[in-house]
Write a structure and sequence with these properties.
Elements (H helix, E strand, L loop, with lengths): L10 H23 L8 E2 L11 E2 L5 H23 L1
Antiparallel strand pairs: 1-2
Length: about 80
C-alpha cells in the first residue's frame, strides 16, 4: 500500500486509493498510446473526498493540451464514423 495510505482508517479509504491508482494507470496507458504524457497525473494526495479518491490531472504546457484535445477529437470522430457506417 502506498505510504500515504498508511494513516487511512478503513478499507473503504484504501479501496478508494486503489481505484484512483488503477484509473491513473489506465489513463497513463491510453495517453501514452497517443504519445501524450501528463507529468502530474496521479492519485490525489489529499485522499478521499466523499469516499472517492480523485485523480489529479495536473497542469500541462499548451502543446500538450492541444495534443490531448486532438486525441479526444480523433476518438469522437472515430465513434461518429462507426455510427454512420
Amino acid at each position: 500500500m502506498p505510504e500515504h495510505t498508511a494513516h487511512l482508517p478503513d478499507d473503504g479509504a484504501a479501496a478508494a486509493w486503489h481505484d484512483a491508482a488503477a484509473a491513473t494507470s489506465a489513463l497513463q496507458w491510453a495517453l501514452s498510446e497517443r504519445g501524450i504524457v501528463l507529468p502530474s497525473l496521479g492519485p490525489d494526495p489529499l485522499g478521499p473526498v466523499a469516499g472517492v479518491n480523485l485523480v489529479e490531472l495536473g497542469r500541462v504546457r499548451p502543446d500538450v493540451a492541444i495534443a490531448l484535445a486532438g486525441a479526444l477529437t480523433c476518438r469522437e470522430q472515430d465513434a461518429t464514423d462507426r455510427r454512420t457506417t
